[in-house]
Amino acid sequence: MTSSEFTADPAPARLAVGIVSAGRVGTALGEALERVGHVVVACSAVSEDSVDRARTRLPDTQILPVDEVATRAELLILAVPDSELASLATGLAATGVVAPGKLVVHTSGANGVGILAPLSAQGAVPLAIHPAMTFSGLAEDTDRLASACFGITAADEIGYAVAQALVLELGGEPVHVAETERALYHAALAHGSNHLVTLVADAVDALHVALDGPGFPGMDTEPGVPQRVLAPLLTAALENALRRGQSALTGPVARGDLGAVQKHLSVLREVDPRIAEGYRALSLRSAQRIGAPAPLVEFLEGER
What we know:
It is a single chain. 53% of the residues lie in helices and 12% in strands. The chain is built from 13 helices and eight strands. Strands 3-2-1-4-5-6-7-8 form an eight-stranded mixed β-sheet, sandwiched between helices. It is of the alpha/beta class and 304 residues long. The radius of gyration is 24 Å and the shape is elongated. The protein starts with 15 loop residues before the first strand and ends with a helix.
C-alpha cells in the first residue's frame, strides 16, 4: 500500500495493524481499530502487565518481537513513551523492516513527524496521531476514544487526509497541529489534565482532615465522602470554565478577599505546607488573570 492510493477524501481500507507496544494507549487504539473492521495482526509486549493487557484486550493478536510486528503491519502504531520513540524509529530503520508506503503512526503528543525521519527517508508515510485523553488501562479507555479529539500532524496533505480518515473512523475529532507547535500543544494538555489530578488530590486530602476534625470524636470520615462532596462542585466548575472562561471564577480571589485567602493559607499549612504552596501559586495566577486588587497580588507574591 502506497501513499498514492489515498485521495483527499479516502475511504479507509481494512488494514493489518501492528502495535508497538501493548501499553494503555496501544491496546485502546488496537481495540478501537478492530471495532471498525481493521485487524490487529501483531503487537509487542514485554512486561507482565502489557502481556496480560494484550491477551485480555486483543485476544486474537499474536505477541511478537518488534521487528516481526513491523514486518506484518500495513499500519504500524508506535505507542511507546516519548523517551523511547527516537531510538525505536532509528532501530526500525536500521533493520529495514518498514517497507516503502507503510503507514507509521506514533501517539506522542509532544512530537510531530520529524522524529520519524529515519523511516520517512525509507519511504514510510509518517503520521503523528495523539488522542487527547487520559488512559487508565481499563476497557473504558476504548469507549472514551469515540468522544476524544486527536492532535494530528503529517508531512503533507495526503498524510493529513489519511490521519483524518483514521480518526473519523474511530469516532474522534481530528485537530490539526503544526509540526512546530507540538510541544506547546502537549504542554497545554499536560498543564490542564495532569495538574488537575494533583489539584483534586490535594483538595481531597485537605477535606478529609476537615471532615475528620474535632467535634466528632470517634467518628472517622467514611471512605469516599470527600470525593462525593467535591464531585458536583468540581464538575460544575469545570463545565463553567470551559463554557465561560475566566468569568467562571468565583471565591475569595475573585472577590479580592485578602482576609479569606490569608486564613486559607494558614489552615492549609497546618495540614501540609505543600498543599498551601499549591493554593498560593494558583491563587496568584488567578489574581493575575482577573486583575485582582494590588494588596492581594502583593501578599501572594510576598508569600513565595
